[in-house]
């Protein structure tokens, strides 16, 4: 290493060169061996910060060195946490109930300042009790994993600390959003990547923005006059778009249907949840087009105006892809806005092997696509893509006062502040853009293909294994693998009612034990008349075949006595 | 330094101690002198990354050292940028037009991956063309400055990479949000800090959430049945809540009325912008209560239902505080939801000297308060506080499926996923919480008081100075100081129309020159019949009296020939 550096330094003295190398050695030394916590007395580490307060940091006069030192300490804490997160021998979570966690640290806010040393202690405590979302065995959510380039980009975004509304205050980020959205539209298949779009604070908001656009497109007067000026509007979506969340699996079987983003949007927009019509799904969770058309005709007969169909590309629980081509035909025939909620499944467009599952998406009017899910971009990163140009602006801008606009050389497509309900927007673009540069499209493709391969491996492993039952037949289309594990004590029960009652309690108990041991985390939920089942999803690029094997062994180890 | 460390190390060998000290010396060495860019050949710095790709980083096998090295390089780039940002001799911005900026770097996304060295180059380029929001002479927005503890907290938030919806996936952050919102409600003056709240993606969304709650409170059936089931609703707000934004000041006088968050909310919610009634403001920009009451009575006479009054605590341009006590009386009398939009001015509640400006806020039903503005918390950090408990949940949750809920020991107040339209939420709490710990309430108070002191200094300095005219009389209530600078060539013009026409062009040209030189940035806009004037705001804790002096000198230097 030192030799290599010397080769490059040429004429520069050895001291300088040695210094540089030394820095890297020390870094490895301190953070890898976690010496700063284990061997070196805490007092040394804190020496610089124990007597310092925030007032000693920049912009304080001569605050440079103290600031660098403080930030470097925080970085060292984070680097140690990162390395630990990827280490399979560490716990995914060190779980405690709220009241217990409240007592394990002082989290209160007071009038008086704390020393920087106390601040570092708070940083350590926060990470100690955090869930390690980067852990290769963390499968609990649709967003898992921690990408190192994405993380670096997010740190840099925080450092730039600006807002997305104009080119003036965020020149580079506005430009990168423009470049990236265009690329995403090309991938969808819109000619020359034309159209519009925006990064929004999550899939639910992206879906609501789409609904807002669809309504405005059909009845622009609604903006000024409200819903009372238009006939009764109805929207359609699959009955399968429920999102279930568990609140603390340690609570045994407490499940909760969290939201229904299309219904939430309809409630907010003054359309009303009763005007969202749920279309039947087949046994794989895909919307049945004939039922969609039947319900559209039915609504029209009642005098209602169908204005919005939200097809789902990748449902939360089953990972089902609605048949977009057939839905596009129906939307075209009845002149209805077609939206594709690809929050979870949209990223499959990056894969030449799997993108056929979204065939027809190019015919949609809008699409939600969350790179923070299947592309493992750090949270939050959700895009709404819109086919028609200019619509977002006219839908969301207020009476613009152009009185003073005399010079139009400036390309307004770079000013995004008026395209959405928000005025300022958080900078969510840089992490996606930088990751795309680091991986290339083929890198994202490989990452996605690998996750799907892992889920196929899991499916093949358990589909005929004793003690397992699949929730639906056939190979999953996304990485969602839904299954029951039946412990021996449940497996052979003959009373079907009793069997279901017992089975319903199995997944929650196993999950609770997973969290107690901290070995892995996977989600479970009931759906319709189906009792609690595991929903495995794989979006974590750190996961391997061995981790899948481990999960199955762990489920059996923790559940065999139930 | 070495001696001090030795004092603390006690028995530990001198090599170890030396190592520790050495690390800090190198840090200062590399980053302060910017040796890595200036003296050391770039080749060395890049040596480790030139042949590496993202696939060499974690979770790659043996990726630890390479990951640490890569992240440390990014940190070094950021640390150098931070030190530079606070240095008054550096430019606030290195401005280029979009087309020019597009050509200055390769920003395109391709199929193939880039090396980690290329990624570092992109990081440097991104910061090179970014606006230095931390710069002591950056006054352009309501959100300025860069707090070192807030930044550290945001880095840590990115590292934890989780979502806010349940305690299970974000135990610490959910707890800290709970603690902080309670503290904020106590400061508002709600008994025992009771009530509810959430951090949302910005002030416009917080205001919309408040409007949604007000409507639901009065007509809960709107959730299912939509706006057609309720009478015509009307909302009221001050005519002064316009937000003006300039798109590139280099474009001379192009101004733009960006948004009107209450109107935007009304458009989205299906209420319609025509149902937002603008109440007259006095010459200081404060809502006139008698006009409010008159318009409420008028609306009732027309058969409309007044449901929402949004009073503003700190308008964007004038920094005006509406008379909350008088407005509260009117809202009480007519049984209307009172919302206080304190996005900009809410933080004055932290100051014993200035909080009287919000007297009456404790009688509001809800309040928007953006710590990312006057408290200089990194973007984004906006809170909606709500007086009534439980309302957010019932307004926004969809038909909850409690079928399986058998165990209620778990405190549901820690599960926030169903309180808002969003399902997942970005973690915005940690930076505010950690800054609060570092500063204490008194630290925030001192920071806010200082900004107000600076603006009073500016006001006193220019109010009688030759060539200046104030846009409104009297000491500003917030840090907004609105003024015209009249260059000698305009100052003595007798033709009033010509004078206004010329004056209208002064601020844009001065601003354009500021950006060309990169010396400072301050915003300007027209308002009503008033031609372009400067709106100085101070939320940047790095600003000093000397920076105010500099601003005035700079305006005169750049504008004297106009």
Automatic annotation (TrEMBL), chains A, B:
Gene Ontology CC entries for this record: cytoplasmic vesicle; cytosol; Golgi membrane; presynaptic membrane
Chain positions found as N6-(pyridoxal phosphate)lysine: 373
SUPFAM superfamilies attached to this UniProt entry: PLP-dependent transferases (SSF53383)
Any Pfam family matching the protein: Pyridoxal_deC
PROSITE patterns: DDC_GAD_HDC_YDC
CDD domains the record matches: DOPA_deC_like
Cofactor section: pyridoxal 5'-phosphate
Subcellular location: Cytoplasm, Cytosol; Cytoplasmic vesicle; Golgi apparatus membrane; Presynaptic cell membrane
Keyword Disulfide bond in annotation: no
Assembly and interaction partners: Homodimer.
Known role: Catalyzes the production of GABA.
UniProt xrefs under PANTHER family: GLUTAMATE DECARBOXYLASE 2 (PTHR45677:SF11), GLUTAMATE DECARBOXYLASE-RELATED (PTHR45677)
Full protein name: Glutamate decarboxylase 2
Species: Sinocyclocheilus grahami
């Amino acid at each position: 290493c030192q030799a290599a550096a010397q080769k490059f330094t040429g004429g520069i003295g050895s001291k300088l060169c040695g210094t540089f190398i030394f820095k890297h050695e020390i870094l490895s030394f301190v953070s890898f061996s976690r010496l700063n916590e284990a061997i070196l007395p805490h007092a040394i580490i804190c020496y610089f910060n124990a007597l310092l307060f925030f007032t000693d940091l920049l912009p304080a006069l001569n605050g440079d060195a103290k600031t660098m030192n403080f930030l470097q300490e925080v970085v060292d804490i984070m680097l140690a946490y990162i390395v630990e997160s990827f280490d399979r021998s560490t716990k995914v979570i060190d779980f405690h109930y709220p009241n217990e966690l409240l007592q394990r640290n002082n989290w209160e806010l007071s009038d008086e300042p704390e020393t920087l040393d106390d601040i570092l202690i708070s940083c350590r405590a926060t990470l100690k009790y955090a869930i390690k979302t980067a852990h290769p065995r963390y499968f609990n959510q649709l967003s898992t994993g921690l990408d190192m380039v994405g993380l670096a980009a997010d740190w840099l975004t925080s450092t730039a600390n600006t807002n997305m509304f104009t080119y003036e205050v965020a020149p580079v980020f506005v430009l990168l959003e423009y470049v990236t959205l265009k690329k995403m539209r090309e991938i969808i298949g819109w000619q020359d990547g034309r159209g519009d779009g925006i990064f929004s604070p999550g899939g639910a908001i992206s879906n609501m923005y789409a609904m807002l656009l669809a309504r405005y497109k059909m009845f622009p007067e609604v903006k000024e006059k409200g819903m009372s000026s238009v006939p009764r509007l109805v929207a359609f979506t699959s009955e399968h778009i429920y999102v279930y969340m568990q609140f603390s699996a340690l609570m045994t079987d407490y499940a909760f249907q969290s939201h229904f983003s299309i219904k939430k949007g309809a409630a907010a927009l003054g359309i009303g949840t009763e005007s969202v019509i749920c279309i039947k799904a087949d046994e794989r969770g895909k919307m049945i087009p004939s039922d969609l058309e039947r319900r559209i005709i039915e609504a029209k007969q009642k005098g209602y105006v169908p204005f919005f169909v939200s097809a789902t590309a990748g449902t939360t629980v089953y990972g089902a892809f609605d048949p977009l081509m057939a839905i596009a035909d129906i939307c075209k025939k009845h002149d209805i806005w077609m939206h594709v909620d690809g929050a979870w499944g949209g990223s499959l467009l990056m894969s030449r092997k799997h993108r056929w599952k979204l065939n027809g998406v190019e015919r949609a009017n809008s699409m939600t696509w969350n790179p923070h899910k299947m592309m493992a971009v750090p949270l939050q990163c959700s895009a709404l893509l819109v086919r028609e140009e200019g619509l977002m602006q006219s839908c969301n801008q207020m009476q613009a006062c152009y009185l003073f606009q005399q010079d139009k050389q400036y390309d307004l497509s770079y000013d995004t502040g008026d395209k959405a309900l928000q005025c300022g927007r958080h900078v969510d673009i840089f992490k996606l853009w930088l990751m795309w540069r680091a991986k290339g499209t083929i890198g994202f493709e490989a990452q996605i293909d690998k996750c799907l391969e892992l889920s196929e491996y899991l499916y093949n492993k358990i589909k005929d294994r004793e003690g397992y039952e699949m929730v639906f037949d056939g190979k999953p289309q996304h990485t969602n693998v839904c299954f029951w594990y039946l412990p021996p004590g449940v497996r052979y029960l003959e009373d079907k009612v009793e069997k279901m009652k017992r089975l319903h309690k199995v997944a929650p108990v196993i999950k609770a034990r997973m969290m107690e041991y901290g070995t892995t985390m996977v989600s479970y939920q009931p759906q319709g008349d189906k009792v609690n089942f595991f929903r495995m999803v794989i979006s974590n690029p750190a996961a391997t075949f061995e981790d899948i094997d481990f999960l199955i062994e762990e489920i059996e180890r923790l559940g065999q006595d139930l």
